[in-house]
Amino acid sequence: MPILQVALDLTLLKRALQIAKEAVSGGVDWLEAGTPLIKSEGMETVRQLRKAFPGHEIVADMKTMDVGAAEVEMSARAGATIVCIMAVSDDETIKDAVRCGRKYGAKIMVDLMSVEDKPQRARELEAMGVDYICHHVGIDEQMKAITGEKELRELCGAVNIPVAVAGGLNSETVAQAIKAGAEIVIVGGAIIKAAKPAEAARAIKKAMKTGKKVKSDLYKKYKPSEVRQAFMKVSTPNIMDAVHRKGAIIGITPVNKPAIKIAGPAVTVRTADGDWAKAVEAIDKAKKGDILVIDAGGGHTAVWGELASWSCIKRGVQAVVIDGAIRDVEDIRSIKFPAWSRNISPHAGEPKGFGEIGVEITVGGQIVHDGDWIVGDQSGIVVIPKERAQESANRSLDVFERENRIREEIKRGSTLSKVLELEKWEKVQ
């Protein structure tokens, strides 16, 4: 039976121990002190895991690049039985880590992240005496929906030592990894972000045992063609947290009450206050699902109204966002056309035709390019550069899922401050 290892990639030891306890009750075999946890809480992480789970293998994911023996020694003496180092390290670093592991009774797992020719490097590592090879699709790669399934199959056929696999696995994907030859399945988010880690672990173990998919509550990693689907599952606050709080369009509010959620690529329009010609002409240039984003200089004379909204509905244009004024709001609300604007005014200007379509504009303090992604809901509107849309969507889903776990801990009687141990992490002046 393949081994299930949980990667405790958290930053707080107290939370990690609680989740570990639940995960073990669900059938987890090995416990990994994740790199973020070790960097945050030090080797005390390993000591506490060893104390709490004396019968389990404890993996220290050190991601060692240098001084292999020193880091293996400190891990082993703290209670780790397996220490993970990087395959891109110098050969002597790896050899010395292996020697030290033999001395202190710790096995060595080597992570192939960032290695180009993985089968060749794996054969070299096996010859050096390492105990396990890890095929690892890193979190940042996962956000681009990279899976590495073909590489895993090639790797498993290249060596005679056990191969571990890590990278966004859950109960819907572990069976496929095992069929490819993996003997150790490393799961992080699917367990540590779950509201009920024990249940998540049981589902994964079931999939490992039966070789069949078991439905997961976590979202998959979305491909470029599925970006809108991903953005529609998260909130604009989730997105802001995921993209380091950049991209919020300020001062522009929804006409509809409550706001109708939107997500789609922008068609940009620059025009003058009250000049509605280019705004209306852009409707004919837009594709189904597009969102018109209009820079009218924050003006108070309307460049949009009911008839333009009807034109969008018939063309399949999703919504309009205006840094300027809109009118006919009662009618727009009645036909449920999603619209956001800075100002409302009964007065419309004239179609003079000044301005441009498909150019860089500034709306609500944010630069918007044609094709950038716009997401709007009751909390506001954000703009995401088109070249980062897929990654940002997946990172937003990651934020959403992590909040689910925090919410569960609060419901059990804690508070946000206690869960995050805010006082501990306040900046030292």
What does this structure look like?
The chain is of the alpha/beta class. It has 2 domains: 3-210, TIM Barrel (Alpha-Beta Barrel), CATH 3.20.20; 225-390, Glucose Oxidase, domain 1 (3-Layer(bba) Sandwich). It contains 19 helices and 19 strands. The protein has helices at residues 13-25, 35-41, 44-52, 68-78, 91-104, 118-128, 139-142, 149-156, 174-179, 189-192, 197-210, 227-231, 236-242, 277-285, 306-315, 329-334, 389-411, 416-420, 422-425, and strands at residues 3-8, 30-33, 57-64, 82-86, 107-111, 132-136, 163-166, 184-187, 248-249, 253-254, 262-270, 291-295, 319-326, 339-344, 356-357, 361-363, 366-368, 373-377, 380-384. The strands form 3 sheets. Strands 9, 10, 11, 12, 13, 14, 15, 18 and 19 form a 9-stranded mixed β-sheet that branches. Strands 1-2-3-4-5-6-7-8 form an 8-stranded parallel beta barrel, surrounded by 7 helices. Helix 16 links the parallel strand 13 and strand 14 (339-344). Helix 1 (13-25) packs parallel to helix 3 (44-52) and helix 1 (13-25) crosses helix 11 (197-210). It is elongated and about 85 Å long. The two termini are 52 Å apart. Mean pLDDT is 93; it is low at 141-147.
Multimerization state: single chain
**SSE-based structural type:** alpha/beta
The radius of gyration computed from the alpha-carbon positions, rounded to a whole number of angstroms, is: 26 Å
Strand runs, count? 19
**How far is the N terminus from the C terminus?**
52 Å
**Unreliable residue runs:** 141-147
